[in-house]
Specification:
By secondary structure, this protein is of the alpha/beta class. Helices cover 42% and strands 15% of the residues. The chain is globular.
């Protein structure tokens, strides 16, 4: 469906497509699950293999703002919004655990039906994102550290 919409508007200068990778924040489904498990002492069940270039929600918001501010001068119609590193869910859980050692998890290989509706790997890079942001997108470690420190600050109040 996404391709069909893009195809209909291809070549129209007023149309921009933002292709999103996995958008990470403490409120996304997987990260909030890990956070819940670490806080409750429950063991997380992490499906593997499932690999994405997770992008932090602040990087996505900054990219949208930059596209809006620079609309007429942009020389692209498609922007991949993706993080700088291809990581599996196990990698993500290990990074989370390195910041919050309370997290315990087990790795599960899901059945083929799990992958019927989703690819195992989405490895899309971005040619323009760093230039558009004026900086490199956050690594997942940086994003998780930011999210967890903000969460700790909320609880300290």
């Amino acid at each position: 469906m996404k391709h069909e919409v893009e195809s209909r508007f291809q070549g129209k200068s007023a149309f921009k497509t933002l292709r999103l990778s996995y958008v990470m924040s403490l409120d996304d489904k997987f990260t909030s699950y890990l956070h819940h498990c670490s806080a409750s002492g429950e063991e997380a069940n992490v499906f593997h293999p499932l690999r994405r270039r997770a992008v932090h929600i602040d990087d996505l918001a900054d990219a949208v703002a930059a596209v809006c501010q620079n609309w007429d001068s942009l020389d692209f119609s498609v922007l991949n919004v993706a993080g700088p590193e291809l990581l599996s869910r196990v990698d993500m859980a290990e990074l989370f655990q390195s910041i919050d050692p309370r997290l315990h998890f087990r790795v599960t290989e899901p059945g083929q039906e799990f992958f019927a509706a989703r690819p195992q790997t989405i490895d899309m890079g971005s040619c323009y994102l760093s230039t558009l942001l004026g900086r490199e997108p956050r690594t997942l470690r940086e994003a998780l550290a930011k999210e967890l420190s903000l969460q700790d600050a909320k609880h300290d109040r």
